[in-house]
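Exercise 7 asks you to align residues with tokens for two separate proteins.
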Amino acid sequence: MLVISPYAKRGFVDHTYTDHVSILKFIEANWGLSPLTSYSEDNLPNATPNVYVPDDRPAIGNMMTLFNFSRPNFGTIKLKAGSEPTGGAAASIGLRQR
């Protein structure tokens, strides 16, 4: 899972198992909500690396370890301005039309 946010930890790789239910678990954990659906209530504690690993399936994380809400990074990435590279999509389209 890729997390793109000004609150995401930069350069951080988390090995906690996540899937689509992790998004629901994140919403529940971040705003202190009870389970939104029966799918988000997996009856397993939130995954903590090397602490809890179920035998039958991996615990589903809630993505809270991916964020640092106290130090957001609202910086921007400056891209180099330049012309389209040679041999790009426009060149190949032009060749097919001939």
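Second protein for Exercise 7:
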Amino acid sequence: MSETPIVITGVGPVTPVGTGRDELAAALDEGLEPVELGQIRLEDHLAAGKTYLDPNSELALVSAALALEDARLEITDANAPSVGLSFGTHLGNVTTVESYCRMLREQGVKLASPLLFIHAYPNTSVSLTAMEFGLGGTSFNFNSGRWCGLQALACAVDELQSGEMSVMLAGSADTYTQTTRPLAVDAPFSAAATVVLERADAAAGRGARALATVAGCGVAASPGDALARALAQASLDETDVDWLLSDALEDAAARTDDRTHSTRLARLVGDSGAATAMTGVVLAALVLGEGKLPAGLGLAALPRTAVIVSADDAGAAAVVLRTLVN
């Protein structure tokens, strides 16, 4: 990518296969089995109580809190201007949108709650997250497709490479409702996954524990092209990919070597929109960083290079992660 490596120093999964680093790492040892998320206790993660939050915003806030805690990163007045956020959500705060539209129909415009309205924007979650944790740096919101979590990560890497920011949080969240997922009402998977990204030299300077290097990113019209761009940026080719984690309608495995182990993310962790691929990023970072062969995934040996690909009819994105051990 460049002479300045970007590393993952913290993970914040709130997913159907585990919440928090320790729970997800344990699930990797025991075998992943997605289940619907239970009730989230915001008071366990946030400093102040909230009057109302869309479920998607709840997920985003808790995920960011877990990632910052895992990275052992404290936001202060001194570093806040150089800590930014890049976030993706395919569907946005659809629960609040549906509630507000129902209120409009039943009660009329004058009686519709303005509180609900301000929580209905697709960028509400990223705004609340930046304010909650005092992130004074650049903030980005992506709603481009189910691959927008990986797009957000690629944007965060660009901010670090350019020197604009010293730390970036990159993540995604999505929440399915009965309307947005009518064929799976009994299993409405929702999730969020956030990672803390830093330049390797800065992370080492503060004594951070890095899990993996983000070696390359690619955004394109198709998963194959996104994968090719990410590998080119990482100065790798298809024979270097040990593990492909795919959340793509078109099978990106056609662009990898026969020895590459492929994992279908939606089957492994549950379909959670843009958070599906970002959950894959967290899984791959844990496997690469902790050096433990996960149970039940069919990997014959520990991977050194993992690629996460996500796509839909609108486009695609790919991220290459590499182990820190040469």
